[in-house]
Each structure stands twice: as structure tokens, then as C-alpha cells.
Design goal:
It comes from Salicibibacter cibarius. By secondary structure, the protein is of the alpha/beta class. It is built from 14 helices and 13 strands. The protein binds zinc ion (ZN). Zinc ion binds at residues 10, 12-13, 15, 25, 27-28, 30.
Length: 407
């Protein structure tokens, strides 16, 4: 199978490096991205739509194993039942990114990272994660016969910790915000023979897996790009990865467009939204994140350049950055379950909350195609409120049941 991968390039200074296991530009410390030979690709294929999932030719830095679906999961794109009306469009869609092996969007980037670890000859991988990346790394490391070390914030939901543990990872909780786990994992990968597949922008290969979401959306929408894509963001690699996938599509087919990217954060941890609203060029870290949406509660302490990369991507797409309160997020989480039949993790609901709120003052056109990325399954955490008192218990007695049903 052909592979069009060319090199690593620094997004700051443009320095080109070979495709090796490094985490930042050796000249300036900037974020690295993978480059491809698009000319050659274009010659060989007409559009991503034409080539996409059917023959799986590669604009990824790994060889695709035809026997495994990863990182092409073909997650469903389903139309909203009622929430679309709240937003003002008839074309609101949910991309069910929790419909993967481990129940979250992290499977795509992690699959690529684990394959690179194998290719580079590592036996051991490490990840700092708020939970979803932890489970994904543990699962795919196991499948590839690698050892995995998983660092999670001490406040990570028990279900996520158990999941990573069940796959056989060495799971360690780190006190304090996510940035602490990030920085510890970084130190270990500098000093020991352990490959770091933390899926911020640290590992330059993992974000390539996120591009596949864009390929699939183009396929889902019969060759078209949506008008807007809404993504909950911590550091924001998912948003940037999806943007990159659409951007590639325009390089290959100039008639195609790039959607406006909408990044969503919680008010309790909103460094990118702040920079966007204040018109700043750079993101300032949030030292004390405080939100129930743990998946996007990344204060970016020590790596705020990642947030700046996402900020610039939102601007490049002529998109927006929105923030919502924890209360609004919980309301949206309930709404998704009770009106759409979608039981998602709290961070996923932030996108829906933000869209509904934004549409009140800036209604979307009724024909706008909007895709909300639902990033994680609700079963990965508790519901968020105690329902014990609301769910009755009865004896094995039909009269007791009938009495309750009358209420
Ligand atoms: Zn550089």
C-alpha cells in the first residue's frame, strides 16, 4: 500500500525533521506536524470522498491493516430529533464518536500513536490523560503487546480508571490538575525508554488519527463538508485534526470547503475562549481549572502553545470559541438523554449547551449543516446526580406495580 507521508515540520519556524520519535521542534521547541506529498496523492486519487473508506489509501503516517477497521471506525452520523429546532436548523447532526472500541474519540489518535511506538521499537508507552486517552492507550497497547503506563488526575471518574486498569495498564493517579500528570509523563519519556503518546499536540502523529473524522463526515454527507463542526476542547487536538482533514480535502479538490470550527470550553477552564474573546495572539494557561467536564478541564500549564495552535485554527476556519457553565452543560446532558436518546459523557454535552446558548442571540440559518462531535460515552462516568431517591423499589407484587404506574 502506498504511503504519502513525507516529514515532520515545525508549525512555528518551519524546520523539517525526519519522521522520528520526537515531541517538539529541535530548533525552537514548537509543535510538530506531519507533512504529506499531496501532489502525488492528487495524481493517484480524485478526492478523499472517492478514495476514502473503501480502499483506505493512506494520508496517515502508518500502514493501515486491512483486517482491522482502525482508525476508520465509521462512527454513525445521526440527525437530531428535537434539539435542531432549539438551534434553528433542520440539519443538526451528531457524530457518535463514542461508538468505538473503548467508547470515546481517543481510539483514533491513540491507534496511530501505538502503531508508531511499535514501528519505533518501543516496548513501553506512557500517557497523561483525563480518562478517555488512558483507556484507549491501555486497550491498544494490550492489542499490540506493549506495556502501558497511564497517569490520570486523582479526580478522574472511577469508571474510566477501572476501564484502563482492566486492560492491564499500570494506572497511577496524580494529585492536582491534569497539567501535573502531563508534565510527569513528559519527564519520564525524556529520561526513560518509554514512548509518550499523550494526545495533546505533544505526540505529532496521534493528531493524524483525528483527521479520519473529517474523512468520514465527507463520506457521511455524500461528498460534502458541513457548514459548522462543534467540538469540546481542552488543548484542542480533535478540533485541529478535524480541520486538517477538511483542509487536506480542499488541497485535493478545490471545489470543497472547510467548515467553520466551533470550539467549546467550560467557564471553569476557558483559556482558549478567553484569548479568542480578548483578541489575543497567545493563550494564557489556566492555573486552577474548576469544572465538572473533566475531559476538557485542561489548563495547559507548561504547554499553552498547544492552546494557541487551536486558537489559530479556529480563526483560520472563521469559526468561534464558546464557553458554557457547568450548570448549562448538565442541562444539555439531560436534554441529550431525554430528547435524543443519547447518553454521553459530561464533556460531550458542552458542545450542545454552547450551541443552544449561542443560537439564542445568533440564530443559525435553517439550512445550515451543523455537526456536533459527541466524544465519549455516558457509561464512562456517573450520571452526575443521585437518582436513588427518584427510582422506586417495590416487592414482587403486581398491585404495588400498578399503584406506582398510576402516579
Ligand atoms: Zn521550530
Amino acid at each position: 500500500m502506498k504511503n504519502y507521508t513525507r516529514s515532520l515540520r515545525c508549525i512555528n519556524c518551519g524546520k523539517i525533521s525526519s519522521l522520528k520519535p520526537i515531541y517538539s521542534c529541535e530548533m525552537c521547541g514548537g509543535v510538530l506536524e506531519v507533512t504529506y506529498d499531496y501532489k502525488k496523492f492528487k495524481k493517484d486519487h480524485e478526492t478523499i470522498y472517492n478514495i476514502s473508506l473503501a480502499n483506505k489509501s493512506s494520508l496517515l503516517p502508518i500502514d493501515i491493516n486491512e483486517e482491522e477497521p482502525f482508525p476508520y471506525f465509521n462512527t454513525p452520523l445521526i440527525k437530531a430529533k428535537g434539539i435542531g429546532l432549539d438551534v434553528g436548523t433542520n440539519n443538526l447532526y451528531f457524530k457518535l464518536e463514542f461508538n468505538t472500541l473503548t467508547g470515546s474519540f481517543k481510539d483514533r489518535p491513540v491507534y496511530v500513536g501505538i502503531k508508531k511506538a511499535k514501528e519505533f521499537g518501543y516496548q513501553k508507552v506512557i500517557v497523561a490523560s483525563s480518562g478517555n486517552g488512558a483507556s484507549a492507550v491501555a486497550a491498544y497497547a494490550t492489542r499490540e503487546g506493549l506495556e502501558s503506563i497511564v497517569l490520570v488526575p486523582a479526580t478522574t471518574p472511577a469508571a474510566k480508571v477501572s476501564q484502563a486498569y482492566a486492560y492491564g495498564a499500570k494506572v497511577i493517579k496524580v494529585e492536582g490538575p491534569y497539567s501535573n500528570a502531563f508534565n510527569l509523563a513528559w519527564q519520564i519519556s525524556q529520561e526513560e525508554d518509554v514512548y509518550n503518546i499523550t494526545t495533546t499536540f505533544l505526540n505529532p502523529y496521534t493528531i493524524e488519527g483525528d483527521k479520519v473524522v473529517a474523512y468520514e463526515l465527507i463520506q457521511n454527507l455524500k461528498g460534502n463538508s458541513p457548514d459548522y463542526v462543534v467540538v469540546p476542547i481542552g488543548a484542542g487536538p480533535l478540533l485541529v485534526g478535524i480541520y486538517n482533514g477538511f483542509y487536506e480535502n480542499t488541497l485535493i479538490n478545490e471545489k470543497q470547503k472547510i467548515p467553520h470550527m466551533i470550539g467549546v470550553q467550560s467557564m471553569g477552564c476557558n483559556p482558549i475562549v478567553k484569548a479568542f474573546n480578548e483578541g489575543k495572539q497567545h493563550v494564557t494557561p489556566e492555573k486552577s481549572p474548576d469544572t465538572i467536564a473533566g475531559g476538557i478541564g485542561d489548563g495547559l500549564v507548561g504547554y499553552s502553545q498547544d492552546g494557541t495552535y487551536t486558537l489559530n485554527t479556529i480563526k483560520d476556519s472563521e469559526g468561534i470559541a464558546l464557553e458554557v457553565s457547568d450548570k448549562e452543560i448538565m442541562h444539555a446532558k439531560n436534554l441529550l438523554a431525554s430528547r435524543e436518546g443519547l447518553y454521553v459523557e459530561t464533556s460531550s454535552a458542552a458542545s450542545v449547551a454552547a450551541l443552544i446558548k449561542h443560537a439564542k442571540t445568533h440564530p443559525f440559518s435553517s439550512t445550515s449543516n451543523i455537526v456536533i462531535i459527541l466524544t465519549g460515552h455516558g457509561l464512562k462516568e456517573s450520571f452526575g446526580k443521585n437518582i436513588e431517591e427518584e427510582v422506586p423499589v417495590i416487592s414482587n407484587n403486581v398491585e404495588a406495580l400498578k399503584l406506582l404506574l398510576k402516579k
